[in-house]
Write a structure and sequence with these properties.
alpha+beta; globular; about 625 residues; Penicillin G acylase, beta-roll domain; eight-stranded antiparallel sheet
Length: about 625
């Protein structure tokens, strides 16, 4: 279904629908790059699992922090589902999806993060001259297959039948690739690893019923229905486990090596991969997906070949690849389509890893410290660079932007006094965010113009670090700060405004101040005005805010600040004790999408105040809840 294609075909609908074969008038215009989706920012999450060696009780603890849209079908609803003798599970499900996709039962808890791997591939086809619906394949040629689709559409007040012929190669549907299109010499086709995945709901149900870690692991090996997420899990015995069981195309070692080379040497392949789209050579049989006898359907990697790790201290993921699930035991040698290994990590991955390592090294963990550490909103970027940036601003004093000198001394004073967090009362957080947005993703991950010491694969969490020096008399640090100050002024945001005054969530008529940061802020707790997952929300919208040129698309900065619509959704920390699960959490946007409901805003206010609540599971605790309301529903005949 559509949920199963969130990481693949759902995002390609536009370029599939636009794929018309070149006619006598030449090729159809290429799709815009925005039609691809993907890239950064996108769907994200943090997931931690702590084992018995580092918890006070010896039991497992799981922390779930999925980052999803706050509107539309990407929202979660919180539930506790019971069937006497059959099912007893607490957690969340995507709207319209049955069961629980993330949560806990009596014995085991689990969380998910969006996988960095590839759920589909595009393939470039060498077309036969003069026949753009035929292509070369090895030493032969093949013809594409046409299919004509028709829909009734309202045109000028009348319903008319509109038809379009779409074409498929032996690989899959043809696409109108952004910036390139479908030409007379080359075309592009697509194959999806989740298109035939009919086991997703069976997989989630098996997880909900798992009795221990062995049972959970066996369900993954048996069902193989996970579409697009990593899993971190812990059980009552203190075992923790990570797996990226997402449906992943199975390429030969030769095809993987060619793909790596292509991403480095081919500008088209590099641009596509920046948008999470891997490109293969569809005219070369060596780039075909291979069948794996251990897989439950053709063309994907079977369970034994999936990245996975079991330990008793911790596993962690924040949407980078499997490689550093636990830095003490790197996962290497897996398919390149699971995500690259020994490559730079995001600031958020680095911060998650440092925080989890610190908690594990301290030992004696319980649920409370785990949950509130996630919400401390500490910025790794500030920890690494703030003092040196302050010194640079004081040394430079001013820097020209658009012909006017911008004073950097006030910025230096504000950042020196800043608490280094993205909390409601934090003064300087917005300035730091806009400063960091002056650098590319590559700069922030690898070093570039921002860091003095570049990324080192043998020190992957603590590099890059240190502030880069001027380059031949040009100072990108001073420029980024001056531009940040200018953009904030254009948005009407005072430099000394606390974050809670200029970052908010609009819940019906209620403007609720919210904490948290974006990807480049280097915080664990993501809350932002931007996210790449398209939704079809039926909730009443809000008037758009005036944008800030060259900045709104990057940080969400608009007139008056940041109206957040994406990020922390369900927040859960649970310990699997002998007396039953002990958990705390919240649903940041509330249970209801109806602005008239009190449950449209109560969760957001709780999130704003960091007021987590017990996640009541045992019957006695539920019955003792002073806010308990009981309703009995029965079906009709």
């Amino acid at each position: 279904g559509d949920v199963g294609l969130l990481g693949s075909g759902r995002n390609l609908v536009q370029i599939i629908g636009r794929a018309e074969a070149p006619g006598s008038d030449g090729p159809v215009a290429p799709s815009p790059l925005s039609a691809l989706g993907g890239g950064e920012p996108g769907m994200a999450s943090n997931g931690w699992a702590f084992g018995g060696d580092v918890t006070a009780s010896g039991h497992g603890i799981v922390m779930a922090n999925p980052h999803f849209p706050w509107g539309g079908e990407g929202r979660f609803w919180e539930c506790h589902l019971t069937i006497p003798g059959e099912l007893d599970v607490y957690g969340v499900a995507l709207l319209g999806a049955p069961g629980v996709q993330m949560g806990f039962n009596e014995n085991i808890g689990w969380c998910h993060t969006f996988s960095a791997g590839s759920r589909f591939t595009l393939s470039r086809l060498d077309l036969v001259e003069g026949t753009p619906t035929s292509y070369r394949y090895g030493d032969t040629t093949r013809d594409m297959t046409p299919t004509t689709y028709g829909v009734d559409a309202l045109v000028d007040g009348a319903v008319v039948r509109v038809e379009r012929t779409l074409w498929s190669s032996h690989i899959g549907p043809m696409v109108n690739l952004p910036l390139i299109g479908w030409g007379t010499e080359i075309g592009f086709t697509y194959r999806d690893a989740n298109l035939d995945n009919t086991s997703m709901l069976e997989q989630f149900l098996a997880m909900c019923r798992a009795t221990d870690m062995d049972d959970l692991q066996a369900s993954y090996a048996r069902v193989q229905g996970m579409p697009w997420v990593n899993t971190m899990a812990a059980d009552r015995s203190g075992r923790v486990w990570y797996i990226d069981a997402s449906a992943t195309p199975n390429l030969s070692p030769t095809a993987q090596a060619r793909f790596r080379t292509r991403v480095t040497d081919d500008p088209i392949a590099a641009l596509l991969y920046e948008n999470r789209v891997p490109l293969l050579d569809g005219s070369d049989p060596d780039d075909e997906w291979l069948d794996d006898p251990t897989a439950n359907r053709p063309g994907i990697i079977g369970h034994p070949g999936l990245p996975q790790l079991e330990r008793r201290d911790f596993v962690v993921n924040a949407n980078d690849s499997h490689w550093l699930t636990n830095p003490a035991q790197p996962l290497e040698g897996y398919s390149v389509l699971h995500g690259f290994e020994r490559t730079p990590r995001t600031l958020r991955t680095r911060q998650n890893t440092k925080v989890v390592q610190r908690l594990a090294e301290a030992g004696g963990l319980s649920v409370g410290p785990v949950l509130f550490t996630l919400l401390d909103n500490e910025s790794l970027g500030a920890e690494l660079l703030r003092d040196e940036v302050v010194d640079r601003c004081r040394t430079v004093a001013s820097f020209p932007v658009d012909g006017s000198d911008v004073d950097l001394l006030e910025a230096a004073d504000l950042l020196e006094a800043w608490d280094g967090r993205f909390d409601l009362e934090s003064v300087g957080a917005t300035l730091w965010r806009e400063f960091m947005a002056g650098f590319t993703v590559a700069d922030i991950r690898s070093g570039g113009a921002l860091f003095a010491l570049p990324w080192d694969p043998d020190d992957p969490i603590d590099t890059p670090r240190g502030l880069a020096a001027e380059v031949k008399g040009f100072d990108p640090v001073a420029l980024a700060m001056a531009v940040a100050i200018t953009h904030l002024a254009r948005a009407g945001v005072a430099l000394d405004a606390p974050l809670g005054e200029v970052q908010w969530a609009q819940r019906g008529p209620h403007r609720v101040p919210v904490h948290g940061g974006g990807e480049a802020d280097g915080v664990t707790n993501i809350l932002a005005p931007v996210g790449a997952l398209s939704t079809a929300s039926l909730e009443p919208g809000h008037p758009p805010l005036a944008t800030v040129a060259d900045r709104t698309a990057r940080t969400g900065l608009a007139e008056g600040g940041y109206r957040c619509t994406y990020g922390t959704s369900f927040l859960m920390a649970v310990e699997l004790t002998d007396a039953g699960p002990k958990g705390f959490g919240l649903l940041a946007y509330g249970q209801s999408g109806d602005p008239r409901s009190e449950h449209h805003v109560d969760g957001t206010r709780a999130y704003s105040e960091k007021a987590v609540r017990p996640l009541l599971f045992r019957d006695a605790d539920i019955e003792a809840d002073p806010d308990l309301v009981t309703r009995r529903l029965s079906g009709g005949a």
